[in-house]
Task: structure prediction
Amino acid sequence: MAYRKAQDTFDLWPGRSPPCPGETLSSWFTRIALSNGLSPKELFPICVPGARLYQLDLDRFPPRELVECLSKHTGVSEGKIRKLNLNQYLGTVFSDQPAKSRLPWIPPAGTAQKCFGQQICPECLRDDRRTHYRLHWRLYFVADCHIRHNILIDRCPYCGGPVSVLRVPDGGGLEFCAYCGGSYLGGEQTMGTVEESSLLIQRNLLSVAGGNWVQLGERHVHPVLFFKALHHLFRLVAGSQFATDLQEVLAGLSGIDLERGSIPKFKEVERYNPRCRQILLQLTMKLIDRWPTTLVQVCKEVGLSRRRLLNTGHDLPFELTRQVDEHLSFPKFELTKDDIQAASRVLERRGTKPTYRELQKLLNHRFPGHRKLSKPVAKRTVPCGFHRYWKLEGISPQVRQAAKEAAKQAGENIGPWIEGVLRRELNGRKR
Result:
């Protein structure tokens, strides 16, 4: 027995700091590696012989050999180590975890240079006694820090590279960018402050992720089904062909001052930065307010039919399909050429050019097949303040191009990016 205890003591690594409450496995693994004078890339094949730490998300798929090795050499039980990964949300945020599929609310992190699934709060990292990443920072509906009341960041403020905890630079730690070596603690937040309404939404969603059921109308919905329906509606508001109209209508209902074009339009919704997600989540949650009245009202206003609303390759929750079938099932209707020509004459009598957008507003219907019946918009007739790059007017071509690249790197449209730069400059002068 004495020999076994001595052998167990000999097996322990010199650096074996215990995991912090709520820490991710990838964060703890990186801290263990650094405390033993190794990089995560060097320690991984020691734990899993013959394997390489390449495009692997340890928070989703921790190898069994890795868990056993860490438990043996750190003294932390295997059960406690397994609780550090995203399986904590299995049965609430997602129902299963296929090996080669993306999870709706947990985008990939650290597997490629365009994967922004890892978020951090620089102020929390600055005040940590032991710098570590929190597990709930991996959830896509978490865009704010409920402790510091600021917006999280998911990319380096200097080079725009994603936060990659398993690729720390040589001589650095978890607070340094893996691509340029810059410190996250020295960067500034991208935009503004966090409103209490956004924090309330996030707290409610985290409680659902913890297992609480959601009441929609007169029914209670399981967390997995709720998050599946919410993700479908989020995609509609963020990146569908109806996104611009939905955002405009929902912003009016929510009392949000949303400038047209302030949110970029991505087909892959995982590309949105935390500032955009914060706004999009508020708009999406408005859709389920007073269920299903607001959803039906908004869909009718923007011309979103049942077929387009449920056009997805995935099974949708029964509560969503039931309400859509009941309230948004209408006979198929198509505009004829005569209808469009009659509407054109009405607009011309009003002194309005019958462009596609104006005809669409008047008829409350889309007609891409007959789009040629509308008159094209004249070039260079957009007034100042309405076209995409109006905030760069009067700027030299070199600075204009540099500003476009910087905005793209930050995941922003040019308007919000310029506003953020001006805010930081003005706040610096006040100091």
